[in-house]
Structure formats: structure tokens, C-alpha cells
Amino acid sequence: MRLSPFDEPYLTDPALVWRRVLAEPGGVFHDPALGLWLIGSHAHVRRALADPSAFGNALTLAPIYDVCPEALEIIMRIDAPPTTAAADPPVHPRTRRALRATFANTPDRVERRYGPIVRRRVDELVSRLVAREGERVDLIAEFTAELPLLVLLDLLGVPERDIGRVRAWADGQIALIWGRPDPAEQVRLARSLLEFWHYCQQLVQDRLDDGGTGEDYVSLALAYRNGDDEVLTLAEVASIVFNLLVAGHETTAGLLAHAVDQALSVPGRWHAMAADPSRIPAFLTETLRVAPAIDGWLRVTRRPVTLGDVTIPAGERCLLLIGAANRDPSVFADPDRFEPARPDGSEHLSFGHGPHFCIGAALARLEAGIALARLTSTIPGLRLTPGHRRSYKPNVAFRAHRELPAIVRIGPPVGPPAVPEPAGAEAPAA
Ligand code: HEM
pTM higher than 0.70 for the full model? Predict the structure, then answer.
């Protein structure tokens, strides 16, 4: 069984491949071309996410291919200590405690702490779209990728003038780790990642120098640390920032893009959400299930692990196919059907599961919920551009649209959607 994640069929409709993975007995394979074990069934993916004694995170942020020596030499100079996605016990429980204490992660706290920032940024971006009435816009560049990044810069206290650099660094990191860059590109991306790491270190140093008394995340983390390296070292604070700037941006951008795409490509969905915003949370949950922003995530076996009839040796890298697990028919009835009212939707694994469960899940849902409510009510006639063919960036972890062209129309919708629904998600209007 081969995944061929960089080939057109997978990039256009990964659900076809996930169906094949799920149809094989056990749903666990070795893909020799990728050098990864593929794990697809919901039960196995859930277990791997939740069991750090068997499935470690040490290589979760290491490139999936053999990096060329010149790029490797640069990567080795990035001395960011593992804190979140790449940390295992005993470090991870300590850094996770720090994250929980400093980053709001329940719906109530997120609304209180981050709600005003999110609303201000949504209003700003929606107003910019409204000003383009009648024009063609790219919803990715002008809304879905922009909002989470602006919110994150506000939360972390990063100057807005640096948005272009941070965007390029974050995109570059994702391409370097989970993409397929050629050697020259690897070197360029490795240099950019080193620069990004130095930037995060400097951000922490600047907060230290100015006393760090603000409400921004870096100041809060420094206050939590209170000068005690046993709690968190300064390098660990910088490393958490380094991780948040990527983890909190491309992911939420993906959720927003997939949700807008699902909503605009089936008659009635956009209008139904404008008329009744209480439909939005279930719509987002179903978008997370059917079109996860992260559809594959890495672990490495820390000892031989038996899943069903297959034993994976120690030290093997595994790609947990979250997208396949979310369509496992043993958990989800009629799994390819996009059905926001389904009772089993929240069993999806799109935010992970267990000790590494996404710390930003509540923030992502808040951002996407406010954004969809404002977009549907303010631009009821928004339409995808006729003839648009979806295409996604080549990546084994992040499923990101290259563009989502649309026509801004403030008045009521005219005619049926001009672009068919994304592949593998058939359903009537919400
Ligand atoms: C739709 C949006 C998002 C998706 C789909 C998503 C998905 C994920 C996934 C799959 C994991 C790995 C869980 C695991 O290994 O078990 C994760 C972890 C993480 N996410 Fe998110 N994420 C999203 C938004 C965010 C946001 C907004 C932030 C912060 C601003 C964030 C910060 C993190 C961090 C720090 C971790 C590592 C947690 C740990 O290792 O303890 N994420 N996320």
C-alpha cells in the first residue's frame, strides 16, 4: 500500500486513498517510498495519539525525508528545546502545565481573554472585503490565512509590521518538515527557520528588557516562570512561542478555508448560517471531521508496538492518518456524507487526543465561529468564482488550499453555487 501524498489523486481527493487504507484489514501498513508506517483506523490512531509510552513525539517536527547535508548542518544550529508537539515525558507534562496556565484553552476563558481581539480583527478584514464589492478576491490571502495570523500576533505581542516575515517563516517550516523541497530549497528553508528561531529568542529578550508587565503571551509566560529555570527556562519560553506561531496560524487558516469552501459550494448552506448562526458550531465540527486542517501527524515508536495483527518495531516513524480515522465507518455512520447534524461528529480526532490535545482548539473554534457569522451576515452574496478548480499545497500533514477565488457581492445570492462541493463530502444543504 502506498500513500503517494505528493501525487495529484491524493492532493485532489485524499478521501479516495483513506477509503482504501480503511478497507485493508487492520489499517496499518509500511509505505516503503515514504519510509513511514501508515495508521488509518480510528481506534489505532486514537491509541497512538494518547499513549506516549509507546508512541513518542521526539521526531514529530523532524523532516519526513533525508535532508541534504548542507541543510542539515543549518538545522542542527536551531537549538530550540522541545516543549510542546516535539516533547515527551518528563519534559512535556511540565511544559504542558505552563501552557495550560498561560494560554486560555476553555471556551469561557478564550471568549473572555481573546474574544475582543478576534472580533476586532474579523471586523477589520470583513470591512476590507466589503470595500471590494463586485471584485474578485482570493479568500485565502485576504481572509482565511490572514485572520489567525493577525490574532496570534496580537496575543503574542508581535509587532504587526513583522507579519510578512512571520507568514513566510511559518509557511517555510511546514514545507521544510512535511513537504518535498529539493536540496537548494531545503537550504533556503533551513536558513529561514534558523532566522525564525532567532527572532523568537529576541522577542523574549525584548520582553525581559522592557520588564514584561503586559498582557501579551510572552509577558505572561515570563511571569509564570518567575525567574525559575525549573519551571521553564528562557529558551523554553522562546521555543513555546516558536511553536505557537506556526501551530496557531496555519491550522486555523485551514479550518476557516475548508469551512468557507464547504459552505459556499452547496446551495443554501451560506444563507442558512446567516439566517441562523446557531448552526455554525455543528457546521465547524463537521468541517473538522471531513476536511481536517492537519490530516496526518507523526509519532515514533519507543518500543515494539502491536496494533491488531501488525507489530511495528521500535524507532519507526508513523504517520497517523487523522483524515482516514475521521471517516472510519466503524465510528461514523455514512462517513463520507457531510452532515452537521450527525450525533457522532465530535468523535473526530482533528485536534488530536490525549496528553498533546491541541491547546488552541477553543481559540480556533472561536475564531472560525465569529468569522463565519460575520461573513455570512455581511456578505450574503459571496460566491466562489465560476470554474475554480481546487488545488492544495503538497504536504503530508497540512491540507491547505492554494487559493479560493471568490466574487464579493453584498446583496442576496444569485443562482446556485458556481463550484461543485469538495470531493468526498456529499450532502444536501445544511
Ligand atoms: C483548526 C485549528 C487547529 C487544528 C486542526 C489543530 C490541530 C492540532 C493537532 C492535530 C495537534 C497535535 C495533537 C497531538 O499530537 O495529539 C495540535 C497540537 C497543538 N496545537 Fe493545535 N490545532 C489548531 C489550532 C491551534 C491554535 C489556534 C493554537 C494556538 C494558538 C494551537 C496550538 C497547539 C499546540 C501548542 C499544540 C501542541 C500541544 C502539546 O503538544 O501539548 N493549535 N493541534
Answer: yes
